[in-house]
Amino acid sequence: MTDWDLDLERASSAALAALAGAATVDELEAAAAAATGKRSPLASLQRSLGAAEPAERRRRGAQIQAARARLELAAAQRRDELLASERTAWLAADALDLGDVIVTNRPWSVTMGHGGLIPAVQAELEDVFVAMGFQVAEGPEVETDWYNFEALNIPPAHPARGLWDTFYVDLGEPETIVLRTHTSPTQVHLMEQAVATGTLPIHSVMPGRCYRRDTPDARHLATFHQVEGLVVDRGITFADLAGVIETFTRAFFGPDIQSRLRPGYFPFTEPSAEFEITCTICRGAGCRTCSHTGWIELGGCGMMDPDVFAAVGIDPDEWSGFAFGFGIDRCAQMRAGIADLRALTDNDVRFLEQFS
Ligand code: PHE
Fold first, then answer.
1. How many domains does one find in the chain?
2. Average pLDDT, integer, range 188-195
3. pTM of the predicted model, to two decimals?
4. What range does the domain containing 68 cover?
């Protein structure tokens, strides 16, 4: 082996050691340049070839090519190793600890649904009455004629039945099972239960869905919602009823909406009144929604009729009370300023999206 071969051998093994010892990709690139670049020992050995005999020159040239190929291969292998471990370290440093959550791409946007206006208003009404000391109760939507009419002092063929355009259910004797036309039958259930269990007095509100053969218009739907109120206690007067109605109106609609009671008629209350509030659409000026009166009827109310107490076995000498019932849909309409109630059943998302 000549001195030249020894020089090449030393330069190659020093360069291989430097490549193997590189700890980062930057160090590796520097070591690779030092091993095979223009200023490397390999380059100066190559430059010295011109001084050699032609045959020796070819032999040394081939040696240099082989050494260069070996160094380039070693550099490439070390580069791959370093890139792989740098990537692993980068991934570990960048990872988010998401527990069991699987993160996927969401290529389209998802529109979330939400509760409707009527259930939201019903919950708010319940809150107002619960704050005033009432309990919340519910009753069936399909009733017998007795609960919907007779116990409420509306016997068969009574002209007052005309006030409620009834849907009859095809069950049992004709015209004995009805879709309830108001929430008042739930009053009867509550009074019966309280008598049976000896748990009078009653201070309850009863929200729920009702049905009437009404032709839908700006203020009426054939399927609608009412909230019934019932107080049965000792020494209850009409002033208590008026106070509850007024307190409710201010709590739910705000101080600038007024309520008023006008004489009315219901077979199960005496005296009876109709309960109206300032139209919130026109603030009392008169508009299409309030038929240009400035007032909107919310519902009815009155003192419990002794005949109803008799039907459920409550002693009218010991107990007195009042009841009221009004439309939840109408409240929603007045609060949200909906000129035509039929918008609630049109299923137009541009309308529904406003009430989330
Ligand atoms: N049930 C009556 C209606 O639907 C309203 C009402 C309830 C009236 C309670 C008086 C007392 O019209």
1. 2
2. 98
3. 0.68
4. 3-103
